[in-house]
User: Fold these one by one.
Assistant:
Number 1:
Amino acid sequence: MRCLTVEAEFDRPVDGVRLEKGYGTPVGESAGLPAWETGGRDKFGTPNAGVLTVVPPKIGGECTAIHLLGIFQCELKSKDRNGTAPGALVTVTTESGKAVTYPLRGGVHFVSPYEVETINRSFGDGISVSTVGKVDLDRSKARLDLVSIDIPSIRDLTQVQFSKRGTGAKFYVFDVWFDFENRAGCPFHHQSKGVSLDELGAVIRVGDRVRFQRALKQFEGSVSVPLMELDEARGIALTFLSVIAAALLELGASREMHRFVLTAARKLEEASTLEEVQTLTARMAEDVTRTLFDRDDNPTHAAIDRALAYIDKNFAKSLSDAELADAVGLSTSHFRYLFKQATGQPFHKYLIAVRLEKARRMLLDLDLSITAVARSTGFLSSAHFSRAFTGRFGVTPTDMKASATRS
């Protein structure tokens, strides 16, 4: 697992308190840049509302900590209307809209920057404070502190806000950092939002060029993040290629396909960068599936791609090749010819294959009856579904469901 600390950008005023060169922090320096301050003005000269909004960088991995470098002032004699000592609030928001708050309390997490020389405290609530230097402020030397907040690992972090609470505190924020850890796991896990490994095999077996390209892009994205370790990228790449090879063997590929996996492993071992792993894998995946997904640049093939995408989303509906041909602007006869050329099978046979692959996934993942799965995948008869399923996978739907229950 690799940890990366990344500096975030935020709107700063044109002028204000600045750090002298030499005050380092987790990464980088803020020397020469004006601090954001409560009660200050933004870059347009407009008074701010006392709330600093920071958007974390898009790095990948899970955010595990937030660091704020600043001057945290506190007048303990001043209290707000509720009698609460002044403080601040750090609010962490995710893509789903969930917000978690971390209060910074005056007299606990921070004290006057003029009264104490240094601080090095951990408070047992996931918040720690350490002094890193001093800054010229109001003709005096003020303490410069680093506030670190440990947070539950968050992958979909969208923003962090720092806001003032009460009337007796003032804050200057020079810099904000985020810690990220790579805990991505397999990008093809069936609970991911993309194409799972099991679905990848189905994509190959039914000849779905559209979803294959989606899976390839999914792989490329998974190994291009800064947190990815080279050996992990090699492992993901080899798994990806092995599933493709296994599906091709099921379709009748020669035993040379086993040698393909061994050759791929050797080439990936020689790759010295993430970019090389990405490029090598994409090239090998496209080469080994060329006969399956072979196509030229004829514009009508874009119509077939639209048809494949439509089938993937509407496989349970009553679909006909004439209906799809009309929807993508082709004659029925031309559509049938192009569809078989693209997928290697007639439209109806392709549609049944897609439905059966979807049904297999439902039986393994969901607690549904055989009848419910049959209806959910477009089969009007449970008997027809059972015969077709057994013919494709060599086991009955009941046995498939039982195997999922035992595992």
Note: Residues 16 and 127 are 27 Å apart (CA to CA).
Number 2:
Amino acid sequence: MSNVTTTFSTLLQLITGRRVEEAEGRARRVQLMITAGLLSLVFAALWGLAVGSASIGLAVANLYKVPMIVLLAALFSVPAGLLALRVSGADYRVSDLLISFFTAVFSGSLVLGVLSPLVALYYHTSAWAGPFLGMGSAFLALATAGFVFVRATLRRRKEDTMPGALALPTLVMVVMNAACLLQLVALASPILPEATIFEGGVDGVIARH
């Protein structure tokens, strides 16, 4: 149990972008990234259960659909980010980029998990606030993950590495993740009880505007 607590505490410290001495070993970094990914799936499942709790069928389906979306969007973003890092020529370790990315995904999913009880409560007690909190919590999680990723990436750079050198891989991973999320949500819909413009993917968003 103490090892689990220590690992969770280390992930929380990594969210701030600080270099944690315990996380500098290669094997430990891999362990932390895997743990961050698994915990992200758990928190995503909790949120999926919360937003679909008004319907047993939807709640059960969300237990695997929402984690699947988070996992696939993250995995699809990694190759593009690594290629962009090489193209940029930045003096930056691949492991630093990956651990920043996976802790960012963890931070966004953590937001979803923390807000899940509130989301479930309002879905059962308010026809107006439930959907608002459902969508709002998702956007807050995305904003948090994006902010944490950019901050962590910049703080882990070497002193002689200019922030602008990391703009390309950071932007590519953020855009790639958002683009994948949009289409994966469309493929897995419905996730929320009510219809949203995101159920049609990019076509639905464009058509709405």
Note: The longest helix spans residues 56-88.
Number 3:
Amino acid sequence: MKIDLDRLMAERDIDAAVVMGSLAGNPTLYYMVNGAKISSGTVVKKRGEPAVLIHNTIERDEAAKSGLETIDINHYDFVGLLRAAEGNRLKATVGLFERVFQDRGISGRVAFYGTGGRGESYTLLRAIDANVPGVRVVGEYSGDIFAAARSTKAPTEVARIREVARKTVETVDATIDFVRSHAIRDEVLVKRDGDRLTVGDAKRFVRRALFERDLVEEVETIFAIGRDAGVPHSHGEDDDVIRLGRTIVFDVFPRERGGGYFFDMTRTFCLGYAPAEAEAMFEDVRACFDTVVSALEAGAPVRRYHEMACEFFESRGHPTLCTDPGTEAGFVHTLGHGIGLSIHEAPFVHNMSNDVLEAGAVFTVEPGLYYPEQGLGVRLEDVFYLDERGEFHNLTDYPQELVVKT
């Protein structure tokens, strides 16, 4: 949570943190400006002091909605710096940061976060390090202070995720109703005009349903049937027709409009009936899911649960990544991940993770089995929240049923 930032900065010997870039695709900046609708900006946080937001003049009203102390970039006369540098934007930007740091009393180890081209960022940070007196530029490669802070959610964040969950469940339910409402001809679903219902038709319905609920599909929804269901991140081909008795992996992971919080859920179903092989796989996955969930414990290392899933599946005769890291069949992905302003964030639930289940964690549990050459794939995914009392809450209010009647 944000209240942990000063502690994290102290533990990692960071005197000040700078978050910069465009807001789009920049969850760390969104986090720090509390979702204010700016196009770009720079947040500067000195350890032990509140963060400040440096913004463009034309966005002053939106910047004020961040709740942070705001500073118009004109306060530092960036235009004058650019003129003095004869149009050299790199030199002017270094001068801008020198003025900002002097103004805020910042020196020592300064870490940078946010977005930008790698070459551009590398060049800028080297120039700041070399030319701003008293400042040493440092960086973090993974698990940075903001990722660590975001790995646990405040109640206000959880409330927003719950609302995205509610709308996502509505979308899943509406989509399944849409699909099952079609007529059947030779075990293929058909539309009123006689054309066959396709994966593309289902995905277009999903997009409309999300839009109506103020959610956006940042990455295309997975609606994969048959062999594609057997490859975990195959999104499904638009031209594939929807048939009875085939496993369909339906994984939808929308976010709030404007760059906010994500949700993530997966259901696997067969229309009309399920072959015996699909029934057996589904029961193995559901039993694994129940086994893991019943063992969840506050403070536990998450690797325990991935290993538990591997042991369970192996006991049922399925290959897993734990014993065969190169396998393309069986249990071929990690058990889960945190969810928030990014679709994948800490805690990362796999057997190489050092994360633990802390109060405020919001994370998925998503065991699956995949046999593409048999045209079979099954995944079940719910999102859980660990509250301050050490209790786990399932935020995914939707049944796990294999057969959908038509």
Note: The domain at 151-404 is CATH 3.90.230.10 (Creatine Amidinohydrolase).
